From TrEMBL:
Positions of the HTH arsR-type domain: 4-98
CDD domains: HTH_ARSR
GO BP annotation list: response to cadmium ion; response to lead ion
Pfam families in the record: HTH_5
PANTHER family assigned to the protein according to its UniProt record, in alphabetical order: HTH-TYPE TRANSCRIPTIONAL REGULATOR CMTR, TRANSCRIPTIONAL REGULATOR-RELATED
Cross-referenced Gene3D superfamilies: Winged helix-like DNA-binding domain superfamily/Winged helix DNA-binding domain
Phylogenetic classification of the source organism: Bacteria, Bacillati, Actinomycetota, Actinomycetes, Micrococcales
UniProt-recorded Gene Ontology molecular function terms: cadmium ion sensor activity; DNA binding; DNA-binding transcription factor activity; lead ion binding
Entry protein name: Winged helix-turn-helix transcriptional regulator
Organism listed in the record: Pengzhenrongella sicca
């Protein structure tokens, strides 16, 4: 069995912080599918470009997304390809534990 260290728990806490905000969670779910420009993410999620910028900065700080320069712009992607299936597994687990969670009558928020 692997020993859990402060570094491990700190990494999990960063992931938890990233997922604790619905906009950040939505960004991560969107970036599972494909890299994207911040303006496209903002439009797709219905948030302002300022909100998107702030949330992407937080996700960069958590080490979950990275910015890739593209001329005068930059696009974003998940920092590690293993994040996409891990997020999918986490979502499937949450819905398996409580299938009514996050439905129209959700009281878990």
């Amino acid at each position: 069995m692997n020993t859990v260290t402060v570094t491990h728990t700190s990494a999990l806490a960063r992931l938890g912080h990233a997922l604790s905000d619905e906009t950040r969670a939505s960004i991560l779910v969107a970036l599972r599918e494909a890299p994207a420009y911040p303006s496209d993410l903002a439009d797709a999620l219905g948030v302002s470009r300022q909100v998107m910028s702030n949330q992407l900065a937080c996700l960069r700080g958590c080490g979950l997304v990275e910015s890739i320069p593209d001329g005068r712009h930059a696009w974003y992607r998940l920092t590690d390809a293993r994040l996409a299936p891990a997020l999918g597994d986490l979502l499937a687990l949450v819905l398996a534990v409580d299938p009514s969670c996050c439905g129209p009558d959700c009281t878990c928020v």
